[in-house]
Design brief:
alpha+beta; eight-stranded antiparallel β-sheet; 3 helices; 8 strands
Length: 149
């Protein structure tokens, strides 16, 4: 299990980033990696995508996903990131969607230029972490800590 310090470090990395790379499983078995903007509430990660996107089709077929998130750095000695394996599901319910919308519009005010509230073409996914790896080169080259979420 993640220690409280590890959980705090993983959340701090998520809080400091705007984009992640998500890997899903295509129908032919190959992984598909895609960059998406995201918000988080602790270790819960949320992102929106087109309802007919390949990501949506892949997640509908197999909910196992992996994501990587890195914070910006100038030198390798500053590299910090997380790699998370978990399961994705469509966010639903008025209360959950209202919370996610508030998080998204606070982090990305430009969102209204691209998506209107209630847009039927958009789906929101929630990723629940099962395994978390924390990469922290400030503690040494290649320093990684892994634990169950």
């Amino acid at each position: 299990m993640l220690s409280p310090a590890q959980r705090e470090q993983a959340v701090a990395i998520l809080d400091a980033a705007d984009d992640l790379t998500i890997a899903t499983v295509r129908e032919d078995g190959y992984p598909q990696a895609t960059t998406v903007s995201f918000v988080n509430d602790g270790l819960a990660i949320y992102f929106g995508t087109w309802s007919q996107s390949q990501k949506t089709k892949n997640i509908t077929r197999c909910d196992k996903v992996s994501v990587t998130v890195n914070v910006p750095y100038k030198a390798w000695s500053e590299i910090r990131g997380v790699s998370i394996g978990g399961r994705a599901r469509r966010a639903d319910g008025a209360e959950e969607l209202a919370k996610i919308s508030k998080l998204m519009f606070a982090k990305f005010p430009q969102l209204l230029e691209f998506v209107k509230p209630g847009d039927a073409e958009m789906v929101i996914f929630r990723i629940d972490a099962e395994v978390v790896s924390i990469l922290d080169y400030t503690k040494g080259f290649g320093h990684t800590e892994q634990a169950a979420a």
